[in-house]
Amino acid sequence: MLDFSLDKIVVIAVIAALVVGPAKLPEYAARLARLVRSFRGMVDGAQSRMRDELGPDFSEIDWKKLDPRQYDPRQIIRDSLMSDPTPVADLPERVPNPFDDLVVQASDEHRNATTPDPPAASKKKAGKPRSTPQFVPLNPPDTRT
Known about the structure:
By secondary structure, the protein is mainly alpha-helical.
């Protein structure tokens, strides 16, 4: 994130000396030192407060092990390919599905269900068939000429 090399720090110091001037440079350096010390104090206080509030379970965590920058995908793949595979005999023959009972119950209910006769009013009437609706354009063509 903040990648300061010695070259960059020297350039910043030279620019600061030119802008501030050699007379006030010690005063500003002391202010910067106090600011850095107070910032470190705030960070240490926040860390100790976090340890106190989270308890002893979280104080023993090695956070460097959880750093994602340390993982090498090639090593992970190599380890997984070189490890002993699970023997087929140890695998279950069929993984149970929790919805199997519901499917059987629903199919039984569907099989046993009887459909009621439709009421007399909804039966189709004999007679001439309905006419199909005609297409009406939304924007009729302009016939004025």
